[in-house]
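REVIEWER CHECKLIST
Item 1: Sequence provided? yes
Item 2: Single chain? yes
Item 3: Sequence as submitted:
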Amino acid sequence: MNFIDKLERRFPRFGIPGLMKYIICLSIVGTVIALIDISGILPVNIYAQYLSLDVYQILHGQVWRLVTFILYPTIKFYGNMSSSMVFIDLIWFAIWAFLYYQIGTVLEREWGKFRFTLFYIGGVLFVIIVSFVYYFISIANTDPTLLSSYATMVGFEDPSALVGFAVGQAANLEYLNQTLFLAFALMFPEVRFYIYFILPVKAKWLAYVYLGLMAWQIVQCIMRSDYYGVTLIVGALVNFAVFFIFARGSSSLTGSVKEKRRKNKYKKMQRPHEVSPDGSRHKCAICGCTEITNPEREFRYCSKCNGNYEYCSEHLFTHEHVR
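Item 4: Structure as written out by the authors:
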């Protein structure tokens, strides 16, 4: 029994049924907030000033940000965008929401609510931990005079507030959501997705594309000295790896999929037992005996023969396999 199986036995009620639909609903709310922010209806930026994972503000009492940063919009809108661009982004958001709702629902059905909730909440905690660690390291390793002068230049009285604001603006669950697809591809590598609704591509190849894009994003972050972006990507991949390492051998992860494949393969080999004129249901493909003519014999299908061939116990292990 692996570590996650033990956790599930100890906390059997842990887990949120239908978690993915709540995640999608939160993403929709975050997108609406983003639309309000770029519209200029309100004099403040709602997400940045009240909801983001601003570590400085969290340490000064705004603890709700530990949860509300999940509202970070999947589609990032920018000011002065044309209505057509906003419309296109909303179309892509709708496609993203539909796709990831399906993926998350399948994963929860295969893993169970405990494991799926553990995976997602574990990823959220990774983002929070990484953000706090980066906040303190940045303050400790940055020249105080330089940091103070830059903070004053952009309107922050406390240099630490500038660092916290920057972290809050960048903290998001984009890479955690991408690892959901990696988990899906690991379990169902042969499932086909239709790119632009036309080009069929197997999930395993799309997973390689995802990993390649993540690697390229890491390179880009390093080139512009965005080490926080690097930690977010690596943190999501570490959460993915740790979860599957601790779940190794679990019957509800990749093991269950393999077991289902074996069962499906076995079912395909079977054929409905047809009743012959003499009333028999089994007939040996070699000697033609049945359970009526030879009731002492047992009958089995051969998994190595190409087709549905049934043999009696006398010929099951001695016949020549049909290719």
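Item 5: Key structural point noted by reviewer: The two ends are 40 Å apart (CA to CA).
Item 6: Recommendation: ____
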